[in-house]
């Protein structure tokens, strides 16, 4: 599981360098994200642009990560590929996460 | 695998055993129309099975249809790994897919515990209109399966689960 994190414009930008977040890696993904989120940042932006496949286990892992962040912090998503976007849409979880349509988020890039 | 009985691409002229109605026959040269794959019930073997299934039919599917096929099969097979064989930590899953004029007809079988009847009820999404700490982390799998498939049926016989369903496709075969 390849995750890289960097601070950008007061947010923590986490890039998922994997093509899949599925049942085989969901637990590992959760564990690594929990380690990364020990870094204090009010906003965490997860770049999913390399992820081509997300199943219900991967979706559950994303929800678990957001819940573990607590109420004072936001988990935002960017770069959803079509198959990933479809899972969020069908399960209505697109109403739960902040999802940025652009790739990458302009407000993060122009400062960096 | 059944498809190994015709390892070489078949020329059109060799299709004399197919149905004689030229308007309905699938005349796609060489495309294997049946896919059968057995794998161990573990998440990495399921990944390989998904890749093999999608590779077999990808030239007949739109990108969205290929994504749907992979997602449905992933949900069904990972449910078997986690729940049907969950206590045993081992078992075999057999996946069969037949391409016909309306789409893909799929069946998945395993020798694990019976499927709880509630899984076959009308699909219902876990509520997302709740406080963050109560958000659902599961319960999406069967909703996705029911949402994306047609004619879903379940049968158990001689200790074996058989789940069958269809994935409609936009373009007709051939």
Kindly describe this structure:
The complex is a heterodimer of chains A (112) and B (174). With 112 residues, chain A is of the alpha/beta class. Chain A has a single domain, classed as Transcription Regulator spoIIAA (2-Layer Sandwich), CATH 3.30.750.24. Chain A is built from four helices and seven strands; from the N terminus they run βββαββαβαβα. A five-stranded mixed beta sheet of chain A has the order 1-2-4-6-7, covered by helices on one side. In chain A, strand 6, helix 3 and strand 7 form a beta-alpha-beta unit. The longest helix of chain A is centred in the middle third of the chain and has 14 residues, at 56-69. Chain A is globular. In chain A, 40% of the residues are buried. The relative contact order of chain B is 0.16. Chain B has three helices and five strands. In chain B, helix 1 (43-57) packs antiparallel against helix 2 (63-84) and helix 2 crosses helix 3. Chain B has one domain: Heat Shock Protein 90. Chain B has 174 residues and is of the alpha+beta class. In chain B, a hairpin with a 2-residue loop joins strand 2 and strand 3.
Task: Kindly summarize this structure in a few lines.
Chain B: It comes from Phaeovulum vinaykumarii. Chain A has four helices and seven strands, in the order βββαββαβαβα. Chain A is an alpha/beta fold and 112 residues long.
List keywords for this structure.
heterodimer, A: 112 residues, alpha/beta, Transcription Regulator spoIIAA, two-stranded parallel ribbon, 34% helix, globular, B: 174 residues, alpha+beta, Heat Shock Protein 90, five-stranded antiparallel β-sheet, 24% strand, disordered N terminus
